[in-house]
Amino acid sequence: MWYDNTIGKLARNNLAEQERSFMPIKIQDALPAREILENENIFVMTEYRAMHQDIRPLNVLMLNLMPTKIVTETQFLRKLSNSPLQVEVEFLHMASHVSTHVDQTHLNTFYKVFDEVEHRKYDGMIITGAPLDFVAFEDVDYWEELKAIMEWTKTHVHCTLHSCWGSFAGLYYHYGIKKQDHIPKLSGVYSHQIRKKNSPLFRGFDDVFYAPHSRATEITEEQVLARQELEIMAVSAEAGVAIVKSTDSRQFFITCHPEYDSDTLKLEYERDMEKGMQPDLPVHYFPEDNPANAPVVNWRSAGQLLISNWLNYYVYQSTPYEL
Q1: pTM (2 decimals)?
Q2: Which of 30, 162, 192, 262 is 20 to 30 Å from 234 by CA-CA measure?
């Protein structure tokens, strides 16, 4: 199946990417992402070693809504790795949804459901995207549970980062901003302009940065600017609003995919071709617009900076020591 092949391809291709760092990510020893990350020379701390350090790690909860859970786990863990901070990552899945693209044993071993964490507090949380572009939020089978989780973040999570579909869901739930269809689908690597150049989120960034998009959903600048509690951080002339945050810096909404691997868009394109969907070629991605040419990555450093700056300046620097 496509998702099984994706996991294997990403595991092999990521060895060549060699995104080096030395941050201790604390995850369960048997998590499949551990071997991939260690082969990329990323410092993954064992639970035993973490228990013997006199330090409070940052507690980050990741609600993984993607069907390809192992791929998404690995992508975000790689980005969280670019920091000297110790981070303990836990994974959450929806109890009201039956996942068909991942082995149930994997969920039982490495994931929790909301009932198991609702009485805890976290420094940070990541809510991932989901392949639900043309589905109304109210028609998503786990929407009521997701609403409960997003409400819970207001009192139990210091700072939450929403990714792609998760960002549209968050903007709709928290601020009533309705998503709109974007046809044809946005697929490719786009240039972005920073609106808030003095923001800690963009420390170390170039004036223009690149990031992949893969969505058939959008919001407009006018929708965001109509809410005084929100500010636009970055936009793309081609892809539109890319990064939004709340003025109190407790909620971040990212419509692009800084976590994507070099071949993620390629695999999505090939998957859709195999389904007979006749997708458009991802723009600004394949050299000479030839799918036979290996993509050249120009978004990796910005993606690392974005996630590590969020983790450092908006989670670590401001979260209370006693949660």
Answers
A1: 0.84
A2: 262
